[in-house]
Structure to design on (449 residues):
């Protein structure tokens, strides 16, 4: 791979903040999540095993075993969206397991959108990656838990999703991150951010080694000697059927790319990247990488203004100008804004309103903020149908209703004014206030008919 001009930038021009910032997780970069061969990885029913060594708190070498079960397959390019989505989530003022954004906003923030290319194809690639990630179950018998500060036996997923059925819909996509995965990333968000633009320009194998080196060089000037086959097969994902000689040639190519990037440097005694490899015995080689000037400076950060909010595009589609959107984002909780934006956009698509979308949105937003109304039943039914459509290939009809109830419980409770059944008088007053809203929606719907 020929390095781009961005990759060749001198170390002293490396930005301390990046428009495109990724967030990785320490244990996941220790081993490959799937084979490098995409033809093998995206096959349904993938079960990928990997192992790696680590040093425990007593300085003893231990071996961890990880397994990735991916019923819809797993592509190495899916890691780009996995780390990118988590980074965008934590760049918000109020990160949450629930993350709402349009696909265009996500790809634009990650630098993937190219106005000269076919965006519909990019959106489809994004949607397919999200579907594969949603099916993954990750297990590890020695996962380092940064919250408890110890290695533990864990099992978790990455995310779930709820997407509009119509690809042309302007409604936001809903990503629901696994709670345990979210906590692990939250615990390391300040120490494992990386330049997403550089990462995206690398090939799959170089991306994985780049992240491993970023983790290692955070505290060391050189990696410990890495056994060549273990690095190539277990960490980078090369096929175990490759001969050691072939893996060595591939690692030389990757090392050359990272040397051009200044992510690694040659030690004084080395004349080329080939000198980084040392023979230990017949057929056994090790390689040691030395920290380059690319990793000088502070970790990457990404900061968002109100104009960068994932809510900006959906609110703009309702007719609000930039100044009004900025005031709304600063005045109301993000989840409340997203919920009623989605309700209003759904009402427009289904022709349930014949008044100004801005007026409809503001009227109900204010009532919801005062806890005087709840989302309409038709919207919940629409979401149930969308959920059922997305799940129909994975669950039986008998389990669908229970799965939907569990889904609602996981994604968070709807805004409710019925917090205390003992407050019967207050409940009646709120119900009386909310009743005209439902009546009005029904009336408007009949008018549209």
């Amino acid at each position: 791979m020929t390095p781009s001009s961005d990759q060749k930038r001198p170390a002293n021009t490396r930005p301390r903040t990046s428009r495109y910032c990724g967030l990785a997780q320490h244990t996941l970069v220790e081993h490959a999540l799937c084979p490098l061969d995409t033809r093998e990885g995206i096959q349904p029913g993938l079960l990928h095993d990997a192992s790696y060594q680590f040093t425990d708190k007593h300085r003893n070498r231990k071996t961890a075993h990880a397994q990735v079960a991916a019923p819809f397959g797993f592509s190495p390019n899916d890691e780009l969206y996995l780390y990118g989505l988590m980074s965008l989530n934590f760049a918000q003022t109020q990160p949450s397991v629930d993350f709402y954004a349009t696909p265009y906003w996500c790809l634009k923030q990650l630098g993937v959108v190219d106005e000269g290319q076919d965006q519909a194809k990019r959106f489809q690639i994004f949607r397919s990656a999200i579907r594969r990630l949603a099916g993954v179950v990750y297990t590890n018998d020695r996962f380092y838990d940064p919250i408890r500060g110890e290695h533990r036996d864990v099992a978790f997923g990455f995310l779930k999703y709820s997407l509009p059925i119509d690809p042309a819909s302007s409604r936001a996509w809903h990503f629901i991150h696994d709670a345990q995965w979210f906590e692990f990333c939250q615990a390391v968000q300040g120490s494992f951010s990386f330049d997403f633009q550089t990462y995206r320009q690398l090939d799959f194998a170089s991306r994985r080694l780049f992240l491993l080196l970023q983790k290692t060089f955070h505290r060391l000037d050189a990696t410990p000697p890495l056994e060549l086959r273990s690095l190539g097969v277990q960490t980078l994902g090369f096929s175990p059927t490759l001969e050691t000689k072939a893996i060595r040639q591939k690692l030389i190519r990757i090392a050359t790319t990272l040397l051009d990037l200044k992510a690694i440097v040659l030690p004084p005694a080395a004349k080329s990247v080939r000198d980084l490899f040392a023979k230990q015995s017949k057929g056994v080689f090790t390689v040691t990488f030395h920290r380059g000037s690319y990793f000088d400076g502070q970790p990457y950060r990404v900061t968002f203004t109100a104009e960068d909010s994932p809510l900006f595009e959906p609110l703009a589609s309702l007719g609000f100008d930039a100044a009004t959107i900025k005031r709304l984002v600063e005045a109301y909780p993000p989840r409340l804004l997203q919920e009623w934006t989605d309700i209003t956009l759904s009402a427009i698509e289904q022709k349930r309103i014949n008044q100004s979308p801005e007026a409809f949105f503001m009227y109900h937003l204010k009532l919801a903020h005062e806890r005087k109304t709840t989302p309409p039943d038709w919207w919940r039914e629409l979401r149930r149908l969308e959920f059922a459509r997305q799940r129909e290939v994975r669950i039986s009809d008998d389990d669908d209703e229970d799965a939907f109830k569990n889904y609602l419980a996981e994604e968070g409770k709807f805004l409710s004014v019925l917090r205390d059944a003992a407050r019967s008088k207050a409940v009646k007053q709120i119900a009386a206030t909310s009743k005209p809203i439902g009546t009005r929606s029904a009336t408007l719907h009949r008018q549209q008919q």
User: Anything to note?
Assistant: The first strand starts at residue 21 and ends at 23. The two ends are 59 Å apart (CA to CA).
